[in-house]
Amino acid sequence: MSSLPPNPAPTPPPAPDAPRAHGLLEVGDGQRIYWEEWGSPDGVPLLYVHGGPGGGLGRSGYRRQADPARTRIIGFEQRGCGRSAPHASDPSVSLASNDTDRLIADMEALREHLGVDRWILNSVSWGSTLALAYALAHPGRVAGIVLFAVTTTHRMEIDWITEGVGTIFPEAWDRLASHAEGAGIGYARGRGRLVAAYARLMEDPDPAVRDAASREWALWEDTHISIGTGGLRRDPRWEDDAFRLAFCRLVTHYWSHDGFCDPPILDRLDRLAGIPATLIHGRRDVSGPASIAWRLHRGWPGSQLIIDEGDGHGGVSMAERWRAANDALVARHRARA
After folding, report:
1. Residue 60: pLDDT above 70?
2. Bias category Pro residues: which stretches (predicted)?
């Protein structure tokens, strides 16, 4: 018998800019995931899968990328972050039950809880990895996919973003690596993976060690996404200690395990055949090279690849294409219903 309280019933929004319904869903392993709904209850179901890992839903801008009159827009926050509980910023919260297979199971539990048969998936960055993993596991439940800033969290992508990008930002990468080398955990550049070193630092029992590591990692995050996004800008969310600690702990946990994607997504693309998809990627996205989006598109019959020449890891032009892709998928789904 669970000691968790029962799931709160969906409630009407107290204000026009609040979700139409929301709640916490118990999914096992002592976890409850936050979910919310916007738009029309009779619209085409659309699930937004956020980035990170650990990014959360943020300011709910995702809901503006689909027509609320024709779409039932659903968002959820993955285990350990946002309003889901328990929160990964608490070092006593184990990450042993936080992996991709369990996140996929959480998505399925949410689909059943909300009475959705098939839904369109929207995703950003890491969320595109999770959306792809879900589609591979449950292709019959996916009516279409829009991937924004495409990733598959293959080891080569992780090694690029944590090591290779240092060829573009040598000063910033040297600072990141030097912090790990000076932390007394036995890391030395050229021997071992830097991401694994930071995963160990984020599990250190000393809160000062975790805090310092999270601040260095956050600075690196801001740096490597700066090209094509208007230059280096500090993300204000880092000022929230709980957000920063959970994000950095979850990112290094997932990345040090290659996203828990075994075998890699790029080796299983045959299961995606028949699912319509639009892949939107910025040419200037040095965090995730366009070659990954290209490989995914080439191995996925029926997918459309849009390379935005001016944007990097997101941007205004890409967001406009995102909305257009959703409009097309919703129209296609309604025509076949």
Report:
1. no
2. 1-17
